[in-house]
Structure formats: structure tokens, C-alpha cells
Amino acid sequence: MTKSTIPLIDRISVELGAQEPWPKDVKLYQPYEVEQILLPDNANCLAAQAFLKMCQLNYEVVHKQNAEAMSPTLKVPFIKAGRFVIAELEGIVQFVNGKGITLTAKLDNEQKADMRAFMSLIHNVIENAEVIRDIALMCYDSMYDPDYES
Fold first, then answer.
1. CB-based contacts of 98: which residues, under 8 Å, 6+ apart?
2. How far apart are the first and last CA of the chain?
3. Distance between alpha carbon 8 and the CA centroid of its chain, in Å?
4. What is the residue-level pLDDT of the chain in tens, covering all 150 positions?
5. What range(s) does the Thioredoxin-like fold domain occupy (predicted)?
6. In terms of Cα–Cα distance, which of 112, 70, 124, 88 is closest to 5?
7. For the whole prediction, is pTM greater than 0.85?
8. Which class is 3-98 in CATH?
């Protein structure tokens, strides 16, 4: 969800929340890792966890079967920080940055742009690689049935 699609009242509320300190009871919601989570969702959940750890912020991971349905954007991960519910990795990063906590303070604008480009490239390549891998597995399974091997 881009900034332009977030309702104005929610943007104002989140910006006002930026003035508050980091809550002690932050929960990061995600689906069960082994049984339920898809690779792109797992990557985003791991990225959110890594980001929060790198920022040295306290949080608790909560696994829920219906985590996607609980999210305001129907995407995982999402955090509940005090009275705020913030979804998706980008939203979580923006929320944390709004509190004055950032990992890119020492980077200039060009380095920040390079970092965003690399992150986008990696995200797009890995997501497409997963789709291609799934299609290849389906083709392999349909062509080579173990019941008919000699």
C-alpha cells in the first residue's frame, strides 16, 4: 500500500504516533512458518524481523493461522504497536523511521537510492524465481510419474 492509498486520517494518526516512544508490547504477526507461509511472505517476515533487530527494538513474534486476514492490507507481516496496526515491510520501516530510528542516517541520497534499487531488484528476481521453480516442479511431476518408472 503506497502512501497515496492510505487514508488521510490514518496517515495523520501514524505521524502523531511517531512522537510517542517505541511501545514495550509490540507484536509482529505472521503465519505459521513451516505449514503455511509462502516463500515471498516468509522473506518479508524475516526481513521485518531483521530490520527490527538491527534497530534494537523489542518485539514478540506471534504466529497466527489467519494472519493475512488480520492484516489491514491482507498482507504479512504486520505489527501491532500500541494503538497502531502497521502492515507490510515498507509500512513497518516507515513507521520506525517516523520515530527517528533509521539505519540509513550515514548514507547520502545516492547511496540510499542505490540501496532501494538493489532491494527492489532482489525482491523481483527472487519472487519470479519462486514462480518459475514451482512451474518447473509441476512440469517435472506431471512428466515423470514414479508409478510408471521401470
1. 14, 15, 17, 18
2. 53
3. 22
4. 445 556 665 666 666 666 788 999 999 999 998 887 888 888 899 999 999 999 999 999 999 999 999 999 999 999 999 989 999 998 999 999 989 999 999 999 999 999 989 988 887 887 788 788 888 888 888 877 666 655
5. 43-132
6. 88
7. no
8. alpha beta
